[in-house]
Amino acid sequence: MQQAPPGRPKFAEANAELDENDEIAALEAIRVALTEVGDGGSYVWRRRHGRLSGVVHPTSSFKDPAGRVCRHIVLIMAYGSAKGRAEGIACRLPDGRWQLEG
After folding, report:
1. Host domain of residue 15
2. Tally of structural domains, the chain
3. pLDDT by residue (tens digit) across 13-55?
4. How far apart are CA 7 and CA 94, in angstroms?
5. What is the structure's pLDDT at 10?
6. Looking at the domain assignment, is residue 2 inside a domain?
7. Is the residue at 5 inside a domain?
8. Edge-to-edge order in the sheet of strand 69-79
9. Is residue 81 part of a domain?
10. Which of 2, 27, 42, 74 is the most exposed place for a label (fewest CB within 10 A)?
11. CB atoms < 10 A from the CB of 70, how many?
12. Is 90:98 a contact under the CB 8 Å cutoff?
């Protein structure tokens, strides 16, 4: 598996076929799930062209040492017949945006 270039999310390592628009769609799905889905829920999404789809599961919420609200998420993506799974932490910034950690 390739390493994602600096600044690219780790899920981008899952498939070298993902283009920038696919990554933007996945990041938007993560943002929606973090903002609108409760712990233990799922957000299912699919790109309009149909080749990329996924499920985002926010599993738990907590506060980090800096007092930011953070959430553990599991992302499952399918690209054609390829499937990948990634998990990580996202923390909410003071301006309301989410930042993926690690």
Report:
1. 10-101
2. 1
3. 555 577 888 888 999 999 999 999 999 999 999 988 778 999 9
4. 20
5. 52
6. no
7. no
8. 43-46, 52-63, 69-79, 82-92, 98-101
9. yes
10. 2
11. 19
12. yes
